[in-house]
Predict the structure.
Amino acid sequence: MSSQTQNLPFTKVGIGMPVYNGERYIEESIKSNLCQTYDDFTLIISDNASSDRTQEICLDYASQDKRIHYIHNPTNLGASKNYTRCFEPANCEYFRWSNADDLIEPSQIEQCVKVLDENSDTVLTYGKTMIIDDSGKLTEHYDDHLDLRQDSAAERFITGIKSIGLSNVLYGLMRRDQLAKTALLGNYIASDINLIIELTLYGKFHELPDYLFSRRMHPEASSWDRSDEETQREFWDTSKKKLWFQHTRAMYEYFRAVKRAPIPLKEKKEIFILLTRIVNWRKDKLFNEFIDFTKYNTLKRFKN
C-alpha cells in the first residue's frame, strides 16, 4: 500500500520496520516477517528518506501484500523519530520493531503471542538471540539474561539494568498500550537500552527457550561502533552538529521513567537509591561531558 497509514485496520500484531538505505538486507527481512506461521499482523515500513533502492523494494512488496503499509519520510528524521513514526499508526494489541537487516524464525510471532495471551502480567516476550554477520553466518549464540519474571517492578528494573548488554529484546513482542506509556526512543545514544529498562516497570519479561531472533552485526550497523561519534550522530539525530551530554541524558531519563511509573513509592525509592549510586560511579564520565561542552563553546567563541 502507499504511504497513507490513517485508519489502519486493527490486527492482533503490529510490526514497525524503520529503515534508511537498507537495500542490501531489507528484502530478506521483509520476507522473514511475511513468512510467519501467525499472519494476523500489519507491517509498517517507515523509510527515512533513503537514497538507494529501498523505496522501490518496499513499494514492490506493498503492492503484493495488503499487510504492508509503506511510509516515505521526505527528510531524514533520525533513528529515534523514525522508530516512533512506524509505531504510532499501529492499530494493534501487541507490537514489535523489526530492523531492516535482522531476521526472525517463522514461529517467532506465534510463540510470542501465545505467551502474552496467557500471561496478562507480562509486557514483553522474546526468543533467544543468534548473532549473524553481514553474510548471514551464525557467529554467536547470545544470552540476553533478561528473563525477568519477578513480581516486584524494582527487582525487575535493578536486575535488568545490571544484566543488559545488547538491546536484542527490544525486537521481541510487547503490549502496545504499555509501550505507549513510556518515553519510547529518545534522540540520544543507547536510548534503546533506556526504553528496555523502563518497560520493566510496566510488567514482566518472558524469555522463550528457542532461538527465534537473528541480530545482524556488520560495519554499517549503528551498534557496530558506539564510539564513532559521527556515525552515532547521523543515526540518532541528524539535526545536531555534535552530540552533547549523552550519558547525562541517559541517567536523567532513568529518573524520569521511575518517577512517572505506576509502581508503589517504596519501590521507586529502592530504584532511586540504585540510580544515585550509578551516578556516583559514573561521576567522572558525567563531569567530563560538562568539561568537553565548556571547552568546545569557549574555543568556538574565541574563533568567532
Remarks:
- Strands lie at 11-19, 41-47, 68-72, 92-97, 103-104, 122-132, 138-142, 173-175, 204-216.
- Residues 101 and 243 are 25 Å apart (CA to CA).
- The chain is about 40% helix and 20% strand.
